[in-house]
Amino acid sequence: MDYIKRDLERKFLHMSAAFKAVMVVGARQVGKSTMLKHLAEGQNRTYVTMDDTQLRAFAQTDPKLFLQTYQPPLLIDEVQKAPELFEEIKILCDENDARGQFWLTGSQSKKLVKKAGDSLAGRLCILKMYSLSAREKLCVDPAGELDFSLQSLTARKKLFGQNHILTTFENIWRGGLPDVQEKDEEQLGEYFNSYIETYLMRDAVDDYGIADTEGFRKFLRACAAFTGQLVNYNDLGASAGVSGVTAKEWVKVLQSMGIIFLLEPYASNELKRLTKTPKLYFCDTGFCAYLSSWTTRDVLMNGAASGHYYENYVIAELLRHYAYGKNKVNLNYYRDNKMREIDLIIEENGVLHPVEIKKASAPDKSAAKSFSVLKSAERTVGTGAVICMSDIVLPLDENALIVPSNLI
Fold it and tell me: What is the pLDDT of residues 8-57, one digit of tens each?
């Protein structure tokens, strides 16, 4: 499989020009090492991996000598396996003012991020990487940030093909892990099975001390069954035969691994009686589909959970886009005690953009009926969007647009 240009490349190189060390974290097999090795081509940058048992032992027992042997500019893969290096990296960073001396990859664990952040405060930039987006698979790179205006979205539409339901659900069912893109259904199933056993279960035991591996496997599948729904730790725990307290801890583990993310509810002093429970989503919909035994694209597309998967897909695509973008953005959802809901609120530069997600191709104005609740938030409310399976960008009303989901 040819190298696929990643949207994170721009931000990574920009941060490497400003920081002495940059670390890319994320779930297993999302392409962290591949991207950094690609960016290092043509540079005089040494590559070492802590997956190599001899190199790892060397780094752990004598980190100073290790970094005298392998000098910057240096790319260290799987650095979480030799955290002893961080203090020595700090010393080298302080001795030299050069930027981009150390490129690091590691797991997304909070333990690693905290240790690296504490040791290399002010010297290190940490960036998060996700699996391939639908846009990356198409090799389409629209310039600039996503702008919810009719003019901008109409111009963006010229870069993308048809917003087709089969293509969309192929992306949802297959997911974005680079190694599964050219596998058939049988190979894909075996890949994900191996992914669980080779990476996730091993990390669960080695990094998080989880002894009940069978319960953890059941918990993974329970989370997949609850994707797109409010988190209920007791229900999740019951599905895996563990307590709600354990379920809450295991949710944190899966977040640390980069497998799931929690979309927090919107909070506002002006808006009372809001739900305080987060919603659970998978970072990669293909892995989620495998865990729930959706064995083909068509079975998933025509199944009862297709709406939840479509919502998960759209929110995960937006999560990627904003993680790699220039602007700091808050993503939340809205629900109050009157059951009024907004699937997503994008808060950018102090402006709230309400988003509803519908699998339909021609949603009517009722899809945006809850957007008006934000008028009480005493915040600027910008253009809203109903992201759906429409193939054209259209005004829904004076405050919202119909947006094809392949444009995000």
Answer: 999 999 999 999 999 999 999 999 999 999 999 989 999 999 999 999 99
In the block, residue with structure tokens 């600039």: 144
C-beta separation of 315 from 206 below 8 A: no
**What are the C-alpha distances in Å from 68 to residues 20, 46, 65, 71, 146?**
17, 12, 5, 6, 45
Higher pLDDT, 338 or 239: 239
**What are the boundaries of each domain within the chain?**
8-129, 144-182+251-407
- Residue 339 has what pLDDT? 82
Contact in structure between 46 and 73 (CB atoms under 8 Å): yes
The Cα 174–Cα 114 span in angstroms is: 33
Considering the four listed CATH numbers 3.40.50.800, 3.40.50.300, 3.10.180.10, 3.90.930.50, the one that applies to the domain covering 8-129 is 3.40.50.300
Look at the chain and count its residues.
408
Q: Which of 258, 276, 5, 253 is nearest to 136 (CA)?
A: 5
Query: Structure tokens of 4?
Result: 């696929």
